[in-house]
Amino acid sequence: MIEVNRIKATLLTILVTALWIISAVCAFLLIIPILDSITLIYAAFWADPNPIGQAYYLGVSIRQMGVLILSMLFVIGIIGGAEIQARNFNKPSSWHFMFITYAVELTLFLFTMFF
Amino acid sequence: MKFIEKLFLHDLRLTGKIILSTFLGLALIIFLAQGVIALIFEYPLDYGEGQLLNQAFRITQGEPLYPADITTPPYLISNYPPVYILINAFFIWIFGPSLLIGRLIAFLSTLGSAFLIASILREFIPNRKILPLVTGSVIFLINPYVLEWSALFRIDMLALLFSLAGLYCVIKNPQKNKSIILASILFVLAAYTRQSYGLAAPLAALIWTWTKNKKQALKLFLIYAISGLAIFGLLQTLTNRGFFFHIITANINPFNWTTVLHSAQDVARKMPWILALLVFYLALGWRYTQSYPFLAPYLIAGMIVALTIGKVGSNVNYLVEICAGFGLLTGIIYGGLCETIPINSESTPEMDYKLEQIPKPESMKQLERKNLWINLTIFLVLTGVLLFQIASLTQNSLFGPIPGRRDRIKRGNDYIYLEEKIKNASKEGPVLADEFMAMLPDNRIPLYFAPFEMTQLSNAGIWDQTRFLKSIEDQNFPVILIHHFQNDPVYLERWTKKMLQAIFDNYAPVEMKADSIIFEPKDFENKTYPDQLNCPNTLWQLPTRADMGLLWHNGQLLMLGSGRSGEIPVYAVADGLLYQFPEWEAAVSIQHEDPLNPGEIIWSFYGDMAPAFDIDNHYIETKFIGTEGVPVKAGDLIGYQGSWLGAYKQTWVHLRFTLLPAGEDGGFPEPFVAIDDFHADLPAYKEQIRLGLDTSISLSAYTGLPESDIFGTLDFLPFECAVGGE
Fold first, then answer.
1. Strands (DSSP E) along B610-649, which ranges?
2. pLDDT tens digits, one per residue of B220-249
3. Chain A nearest-CA residue for B35
């Protein structure tokens, strides 16, 4: 019985770790497409083809700020996510958190798909 | 039921809600952002804004809104009933004329309409769930037709607000007399804000009330009809029958079914899922929903009203009311199908599990479990459908009306210039304008002439334009502004042919700002103007008319004629041999003996003779296609002006014309072979010298056409004759 529980715990650990790694990779890969989508939406409102124009520089600034914010969120997300999974291993809260993580990533993926 | 099943049942639903809520939030932010941008822009965004601002301003000046006599100036028509105009007049009386007031009323009305859609939905959605309410409201707001109209100084959104408020009163409590009276008043206000809003909502309310209480329905009908007719009679009397003439007679414009078809196709392209839900609802809704007695008539009547978009001069505002119906429809369907099969909560396990410990498996009936999964599947499918629809509508708004407005707004300095021009010119006499006419009342200058409305009346034989034409011929107007949209010659609907001819005969296009062409009286004493395609004392004739002016582009002229693509003829400027090289798609060139340098050869070039985006149907005369060295005489028809400017660009109807030096042995100059492409990188002045080409060729010297010394950007030039190659 103890052996069965140990195998089950090992499998669960592998599953959680794999899901966490996949979510981290997906989040990383989403950063650039999200910035592209934000830039696209910005351009719809304030585009200016003039490379020395105010609107162009504002667009570039938004992208740079976006890189900073998304990078910080990414780091917070993967470290915080790992910690939550470790502290609440195999609790409903950790599985719920994992679900929410993937829900948010799916939302962001769809956002980049549509815009 | 194990924990994992609970987790998926609970969190998959949550995932759907998260995704949909995010997209709804994004749509709302985009809607609000465009609204704020429109509100703070201080210049006109639409032709109709000027009319309404002027009407409100006239009221503050004690002028009649619906004069019975329109044979004397000012030549104006008030197309709409007075409610919105009176509200604006009140604020203008306090704060002075401003576009902001009317736009703010419209924008707040749009938000108010969205709130009323949610309030109506709340009456029909089980457990009053928030998400379906927000979905219905936001689908209305992010609809490109609504978004485009939401912050314009136009009547439609206020009329919609009144009509939805009336509908809400009746739906909320059809049994109470107070509700019936209030609804009747609101419907009358809606109808007297915009005529067409007197149909769909009152009809829906009437049928809804009829299903609840026939007596109340009769009361609603009588109060609405009697008060509406009484006000009509009063206004007719007060205006000496001018009211009927202005809002009915002057509104009966020619009808075009092609416009209806195009609009229907556009709606189908933008809202395929909503239309699918509409068919589903109209077919089955009577059986499964309580909302059918009001929503089905509202949708059907809304569609009938939307058909009037076929009127000449109509716009997307004719679709706003049906868009409100679509918002209600999606909200009701989504709300109804969130939990399609009723679940007995007592026989199902608690789905909101505790977060601390994995719960033990619980037993439940197989049927209940199946129903839970069916409900989840329907919810997810419907959420997915609505997600695609909302994303598609957001895209259509984001890449349709929003960039259109952006491109209009960013010409900031042009507006300042135009406004100054109008203000200064108005000191000398009345200024005529179309698209930017709002700049006049915005500066306390009353309008003299409403181009579109009077043109339609003239075309219908209701108004005699003779007196007005005489005023143009007498050059009574110091400035005339004619807006020239790049994608459509709308001005042809706004000015009669005779008006345009009188303007072209007596006024010269001198500048173009924000796509509006400024016409000023011709100075016949000091300047010469082309007469029948000829400038006096020049060697060659002109290739075509450029009544809307000329645009100089790096040594070439875009000659803007007045008319539609493919209508304005292009002629050979002199005798010569015509070539249509194989690599050219919409251009020809003619080889001439150089009259200024005997023994030398010179080439004239005629480009862009094709409709936009459709090079295969070019306008070059068939006999010249692919020819090399066909003799032509001066004045021979070559083709017609087009709106082609490369595969991905559309522009004003024009001919691109220039003169070029000959290459080796008198042949077409090799470095200019790519000239067929407007965006081609052609040799500049110094490069031409380096290549040994003659750089002294002047358009003015041969044809009398004016030239500019500006390179690298478009420069507008008047359609007048240059003296001696100046």
1. 628-632, 637-640, 642-644
2. 999 999 999 999 999 999 999 999 999 999
3. A45
Provide the CB-side half-sphere exposure for B369 (13 A, CA). 10
Whether residue B25 lies within 8 A of chain A, CB to CB, comes out as no
Residue B507's pLDDT band, with cuts at 50, 70 and 90, is: very high
Place of tokens 């149907």: B617
Task: Report the pLDDT value the prediction gives residue B189, as an integer from 0 to 100.
Answer: 97
Nearest to residue B265, comparing CAs of B327, B314, B309, B312? Answer: B309
Helix (H, G, I), strand (E, B) or coil at A96: helix
pTM score? 0.91
A contacts of B23 (beta carbons < 8 Å): 107, 110-111, 114
Closest CA to B555 of B699, B686, B379: B699
Question: Would an 8 Å CB–CB cutoff place B413 in contact with chain A?
Answer: no
Measured between CA atoms, the residue of chain B closest to residue A44 is: B403
| Residue B657 pLDDT level (bands cut at 50, 70, 90) | very high
Q: Give the list of residues 6+ apart from residue B5 with CB closer than 8 angstroms, or none.
A: B369
Q: Is B359 on the interface with A (CB under 8 A)?
A: yes
- Dig out the tokens for B632 from the structure: 């032509």
8 Å CB contact between B312 and B253 = yes
Q: Which residues of B touch A102 (CB under 8 A)?
A: 15
pLDDT tens string B88-126: 999 999 999 999 999 999 999 999 999 999 999 999 987
pLDDT at B691: 81
| Closest C-alpha among B256, B278, B283, B280 to residue B267 | B278
H or E element at residue B593:
strand B588-593
pLDDT bin (cut points 50, 70, 90) of residue B687 is: confident
The residue-averaged pLDDT of B140-163 equals 97
Q: How far apart are CA B493 and CA B488, in angstroms?
A: 10
B380 touches A at CB < 8 Å: no
The answer to whether B54 and B88 are in contact (CB under 8 A) is no
pLDDT(A51) > 70: no
Q: Note the Cα B144 to chain centre separation in Å.
A: 11
Q: What is the predicted pLDDT for the residue at B726?
A: 45
Q: What's residue B710's pLDDT? A: 87
H or E segment at B158?
helix B156-172
Summarised one tens digit per residue, pLDDT across range B343-385 is 776 766 676 667 677 778 877 788 888 888 999 999 999 999 9
Tell me which H or E stretch contains B195: none
Q: Which of B1, B4, B13, B15 to mutate to test the interface with A (most CBs of A within 10 A)?
A: B15
Phi-psi category of residue B554: left, alpha or beta, with phi > 0 → left and psi -120 to 50 → alpha: left
What string of DSSP letters covers B392-436?
A: HHHHHHHTTHHHHHHHHHT-HHHHHHHHHHHHHHHTTSPPB-STT
How far B33 CA lies from chain A's nearest CA (Å)? Answer: 9
* B680: pLDDT strictly greater than 90: no
Task: Give the C-alpha separation, B567 to B271, whole Å.
Answer: 36
Report the alpha-carbon distance of residue B244 to residue A108 in Å, rounded: 55
Q: Under an 8 A CB cutoff, do B7 and A99 touch?
A: yes
User: Which residue in chain A has the smallest CA separation from B389?
Assistant: A114
| Chain A contact present for B387, CB below 8 A | yes
Subunit contact A41:B18, Cβ cutoff 8 A:
no
Measured in angstroms, the CA of B496 and the nearest CA of chain A are apart by 36
Tokens representing A18 are 């794999």
Q: How far apart are CA B367 and CA B385, in angstroms?
A: 27
Give me the pLDDT at residue B725, please: 46
Q: Give me the amino acid identity at B707.
A: E
| Residue B395 C-alpha from the chain's centroid | 17
Closest CA to B30 of B124, B128, B119, B151: B151
Average pLDDT of B178-192?
Answer: 97
